[in-house]
Design goal:
Elements: E1 7-12, H1 18-30, E2 34-39, H2 49-56, H3 72-79, E3 82-88, H4 90-98, H5 104-111, E4 119-123, H6 127-131, H7 133-145, E5 148-149, E6 153-156, E7 162-166, H8 170-181
Parallel strand pairs: 1-2, 1-3, 3-4, 4-5
Antiparallel strand pairs: 6-7
Helix pairs in contact: 1-2, 1-8, 3-5, 4-7
The chain binds flavin mononucleotide.
Length: 186
């Protein structure tokens, strides 16, 4: 058993569900998990860098050109035991499936040893965006690569429509992460 706390890389993309992800982040850090956050520029329009730093105790990584963090697109991939993109937008899912690496999320995905360590995505979007053949093809591609796709919930969506596309509920996410990392909690 490892003597150190389990390490979670928590990557946010630009969905209205970022506030729910913050709730999960709070619970996960309280559970003793060491968390580092990564955010796309769009995600930072939904939640502030100060919120992410306040919840985790470390600054969010959002730009590969940040001074002093020149190799974090590799280092964070080596550091973590589990990575989860939460919320995962249609845009980010399609970009990951295509192997694009011009932002921290994409670069970390390619630097991640996908056969050795789990990478999860938690989609959150409008039901039509989720059902679109482009999005579904990307999810299939990601599953083939070895990514675990957490099931989106059904019900009322932020856009006012009903359907599948709600971010997994924070409580459920926390339980799934604890089940995955629990054996590492000393
Ligand atoms: C209010 C608002 C809510 C949004 N919610 C979502 C969402 O839940 N899921 C999604 O895929 N895109 C959503 N978008 C669109 C994304 O923010 C947009 O596609 C963005 O380019 C995603 O960038 P990223 O994947 O790099 O974070 C939303 C946009 C706005 C303005």
């Amino acid at each position: 058993m490892s003597a150190r706390p389990p390490r979670l890389l928590f990557l946010l993309s630009g969905s209205i569900a970022c506030y729910k992800a913050c709730h999960a982040l709070s619970r996960l850090t309280q559970a003793g998990i060491e968390v580092r956050t990564v955010a796309t520029p769009a995600a930072l329009r939904f939640v502030g860098a100060a919120t992410l730093e306040g919840l985790t105790g470390t600054p969010v990584f959002s730009d590969v050109w940040t001074e002093g963090r020149a190799m974090d697109h590799i280092n964070l991939a080596r550091w973590a035991d589990l990575a989860i993109v939460c919320p995962a937008t249609a845009n980010t899912l399609n970009r990951l499936a295509a192997g694009l690496a011009d932002d921290p999320v994409g670069a970390l995905f390619l630097a991640w040893e996908i056969q050795q360590k789990p990478w999860w995505v938690a989609p959150a979007m409008n039901h039509t965006m989720l059902a679109h053949p482009a999005t579904q093809a990307s999810l299939d591609r990601l599953r083939t690569i070895g990514v675990r796709v957490l099931a989106a919930g059904s019900g009322a969506l932020a856009c006012g429509e009903q359907g599948e596309g709600r971010l997994v509920e924070p409580e459920s996410l926390v339980l799934q992460v604890l089940a995955e990392l629990g054996p590492k909690i000393a």
